[in-house]
């Protein structure tokens, strides 16, 4: 199913367009995502990198080392600081959009919660979602769950 998403940073300087099929959407409860989002969790909408194009602005990049030792490129607006995208260095196919930056978020519902070992105790997770105490060994199950949501 082909989709079109448009999004932007908080100030509107950096705007982007995505056309194609999204791969999955999940919430991450790790401490890094909590800090990055200034909230109880971060969210990730995975798409194929070639489906995304910048419409306006020139975002800045910051590379951080993850607990696994891998490095992640974090893309943000140089003016307002809004985090827009994440991409594992060496990963040339998939990019993660921060879905709160989409212009329309009304139809987005995560299929999984990862790093539930760090979930805030007051947060009640949807029992119909997949749950992982850390990173899943394989994200294929998340891809399949996302695809199933579109079939229903």
Tell me what the structure shows.
With 152 residues, the chain is mostly beta strands. 12% of the residues lie in helices and 37% in strands. The chain has two helices and eleven strands. The strands form two sheets. It has an eight-stranded mixed beta sheet with strand order 6-7-8-9-4-3-10-11. The protein has a three-stranded antiparallel beta sheet with strand order 1-2-5, with no helix packed on it. The longest helix has 12 residues, at 140-151.
Compose a concise summary of this entry.
The protein is mainly beta. The chain contains 2 helices and 11 strands.
Keyword list:
eight-stranded mixed β-sheet; three-stranded antiparallel β-sheet; mainly beta; 152 residues
Query: Which strand order do you get reading across the main beta sheet?
Result: 6-7-8-9-4-3-10-11
Uncertain residue ranges = none
What does the main sheet amount to?
8 strands, mixed
Number of strands: 11
Helix/strand order, N-terminal first: EEEHEEEEEEEEH
* Strand coverage percent: 35-45%
Query: From the alpha-carbon coordinates, what is the Rg to the nearest angstrom?
Result: 15 Å
Q: Label the structural class.
A: mainly beta
Shape: globular
How many alpha or pi helices?
A: 2
Distance between the termini: 12 Å
Helix content: 10-25%
Q: Taking all residues together, what is the mean pLDDT?
A: 90
